[in-house]
Amino acid sequence: DASAASVGSLVQYLRHYAGWLNVDPHRIFVFGRSFGGFVSLTPALKGHYLDLGSPDPIRHHSSRPDYSIPFSAITDWTCFGPTILLDFYLVTLFPVSAAPGATVQQKLDDSPAYWLANPSLYGRTTTPPMCLGYAVTAPLPCGQLADPHDGNFGSHMRGAIDDFALATGDASLGLSSQLIDTFDVYGLEGAMVQVMDWAQAQLAPKVETMYLLPPATPLGP
């Protein structure tokens, strides 16, 4: 929460001093890898640090970024199986959801896919488009994952975005969001050109596009 609050404060700072910094306060992108990716999703989907009653005018601005770019981040704690790699590290960062006795709801409370699907719980009236960077060739499904950087966290989140877009009629979110295959669980080397292309595309005028989802089950005759 402290890390997410710091990112939210940075977004507020950029908006407050947008004129001085010569930036567009409505075109703020937040990028992060691994835990940083999780932190980039937190102010985008969950915590909101707007405080109109604060004596600090910086707090009078929205802390939600306009776009989120998470790479190799956990998106749903219920996707883990009985074994989790790096659990000693995760317990430090997520003492509740990574604990052996965590309930399903405690895991969901730390899951960006759950935040996305429940905007009213977090006072979220808009949802920023997301560019997800994951090694999407990972073979294990949700419920059996062991690596906190597993690519299926990305596929799962992409599906959650489409479900949310369909449920809320927010086709622009589904059209603008993208899942990029980094071919690397940490997303350290490649895909940054694709990310920059995606970011530039968000700033360009939108053209009419069909919002078509792949079928959830294989098509028969």
Explain briefly what this protein structure is.
With 221 residues, the protein is mainly alpha-helical.
Write the layout of secondary structure elements.
Elements: H1 2-16, H2 18-21, E1 29-33, H3 35-45, E2 67-71, H4 87-93, H5 104-109, H6 112-117, E3 131-134, H7 152-168, H8 171-176, E4 178-181, H9 192-203
Task: Give your account of this protein's structure.
This protein has helices at residues 2-16, 18-21, 35-45, 87-93, 104-109, 112-117, 152-168, 171-176, 192-203; strands at residues 29-33, 67-71, 131-134, 178-181. It has 221 residues and is mainly α. The chain has a two-stranded parallel sheet with strand order 1-2. Helix 1 packs across helix 3 (35-45). The termini are far apart.
pLDDT below 50 for ≥5 consecutive residues: which ranges?
none
Range of strand content: 5-15%
The helicity comes to: 25-40%
How far the N terminus sits from the C terminus, by CA atoms, comes to 50 Å
Number of helices: 9
Could you give a short account of the major beta sheet?
2 strands, parallel
Structural class: mainly alpha
- In N-to-C order, the SSE pattern is HHEHEHHHEHHEH
> Mean of residue pLDDT?
90
Cα Rg: 18 Å
Number of extended strands: 4
What is the topology, as strand order, of the major beta sheet?
Answer: 1-2
Shape: globular
